[in-house]
Amino acid sequence: PEPTEDEFNLFRKLVQKELGFEWGDDKKYLLYSRVQRRLQKNKLKTFQDYYDFIEREENKSERQYLYNAVTTTKSEFYREKKHFDFLRQNIFPELKKLASSRQHKLRFWSAGCSTGEEPYTLAFESHDFFGASFISNGGLRILGSDVNTDVLESAIQGCYAEKFLSPIPDSFRRRYFSSESEKPNSHNQIKTEIQRLIQFRQFNLMSSEYPIATKFQLIFCRNVLYYLKPERRELLISKLVDHLEEGGWLVLGITESGYRIDKMEKHSISIYQKT
């Protein structure tokens, strides 16, 4: 059966507390359509039963299935391409100077990386711009993180159907993929030299502490804020800024451009630099 109003509100509060999501009433169907099969899997009758089930300490692992079910996983190569143009024209030249001036290792983070298209796009662009020798000497590392373990499994595999590759420049497709064939459903494997640049890790951006010791020169966190309650947005932005080096860059989604952020200077549409 569909969740009752009370059942829906229990889950609404839970995802707000755990994931920071702001759910309107229209999300009731999302809960029903995506979580229904978890009820069946655990042989439970109602959403109240499922809620009680995941609240029990011994069933904490089931919560991950819930998070996977309710998180949005849309991603594509070169999404919001303006950002990658800005990266090449403005950010990368600056980082190149930084890297050569003090033997600096570059560290980038794709926060909310979903199935991996965003960090792989960053990797293609970086490999092309900074060159193989800089990169193979450990000059660049990219972190891809997400709360959803299903999408991370896909990202780690780095294997994409032909139909998803159209935004990628042909020269990059030839250089960075080993293709089985050109058929629409054939799969294209990202080459190991690119995969090696990226470490994928599961954690929740709403956690009080992130398991990260590094400061980054570049953080992409696009189309994540949109789903969050306003106060959680502020909190997340300030934590991301804390994880940036001085002079580091933060890139938000194009629709998430109206923010004034402490200690940050706005450069272009939804692109900020730490001052």
Describe this structure in words.
The longest helix has 21 residues. The strands form two sheets. Strands 6-2-1-7-8-10-9 form a seven-stranded mixed β-sheet. Strands 3-5-4 form a three-stranded antiparallel β-sheet. The protein has 275 residues and is α/β, with parallel strands linked by helices. It is 45% helix and 19% strand. A hairpin with a 7-residue loop joins strand 4 and strand 5. The model has no long low-confidence stretch (mean pLDDT 90). It folds into two domains: 66 residues, Chemotaxis Receptor Methyltransferase Cher, domain 1; 163 residues, Rossmann fold, CATH 3.40.50.150. The protein has eleven helices and ten strands.
Topology:
Blueprint: H1 5-19, H2 28-41, H3 47-55, H4 60-70, H5 81-101, E1 106-111, H6 117-130, H7 132-139, E2 140-146, H8 149-157, E3 159-161, H9 170-176, E4 177-179, E5 187-190, H10 192-195, E6 198-202, E7 216-221, H11 230-242, E8 244-252, E9 264-268, E10 271-274
Parallel strand pairs: 1-2, 1-7, 2-6, 7-8
Antiparallel strand pairs: 3-5, 4-5, 8-10, 9-10
Helix pairs in contact: 2-4, 5-6, 6-7
Name its key features:
globular; Rossmann fold; 3-stranded antiparallel β-sheet; 11 helices; 275 residues; alpha/beta; Chemotaxis Receptor Methyltransferase Cher, domain 1; 45% helix
